[in-house]
Known about the structure:
Blueprint: H1 3-17, E1 21-29, E2 35-43, E3 52-53, H2 55-62, H3 67-82, H4 90-93, H5 95-98, E4 102-108, H6 113-116, E5 122-124, E6 127-135, E7 143-146, H7 149-155, H8 159-173, E8 177-180, H9 181-185, E9 203-206, H10 221-230, E10 234-237, E11 244-248, H11 254-267, E12 280-283, E13 288-291
Antiparallel strand pairs: 1-2, 2-3, 4-6, 5-6, 6-7, 8-9, 9-11, 10-11, 10-12, 12-13
Helix pairs in contact: 2-3
Amino acid sequence: MDFKEFTERAVSEIGKMMEDGQAELHSIKRNNGITHTGLLPVRREEWVSPVVALEGYYEKLCQGMDFSQVIGEIWLKCIENRKGPEIDISVFTNWVQAKEYVAVKLVNYGANAGMLENIPHKRFLDLAEVYYHAMPTDGQDLATILINNQHMELWGIDMEELAGYAYVNTRQQFPAELRSMEEMLKGFPGLEKPDMGVGIPVYVATNRLCQYGACFMLFPETFQGIAEKYKADLYILPSSVHEIIFLPAFKDKAGELEEIVKEVNKSQALPEERLSDTVYRYCRRSGKVETA
């Protein structure tokens, strides 16, 4: 059974199991142009319904799991999603409420050129700052919506207003958390610290949710304290869209560090979470982030 046949049969079987709606195939567009195929359970009187990505379930089928078992797992996931946190959609549709929950993140400019045509954004070096709505739920997880041009029309706002609230909210609701690399790796015993040189301190910047933390390159004050401590500029390595690694620029290591970034992106980072192969530099004198 090829993937196309699998998705069609999965939609048919899940649709038969639904008493209050139907199942549909839905493209899930991710960062960097990555697209997954999802199953969308469409139920009457529901504004929001999570999509179930089907690639992982097809892999289980290919590994020998019976088709009926795979369908059972998809159905259980649909039920689990339905029991998830309640979402008040009016918090998004009304700008007076929505403005309190918009935030900013960074994506690769070139890899997302097509998406950016319909997305309010600002160019930042070889990256683009884009904006999302972190919809509050009754649980711990965030339900995020990437803001597009249609949302801007719905709200009746301009770019300046959107970005202004996004910067404030990001700083206040998702402030930077700086940790040493050694401290960060304590929770991941299988990972090793990258070889940045003997005796060179290495730090990681993200936020409490470890989500979209690379945006702190937009807020240079994040790096000021560490730069002053070591009386040096800082190299910034884009580990992923979720966190960045930085270290004092004691020596000219930009080319060497770029090779490390490329290797990590190639071997460890998920395609949809890659940010860039570029090494950046925080300039202690100017207080700005630039390309190294």
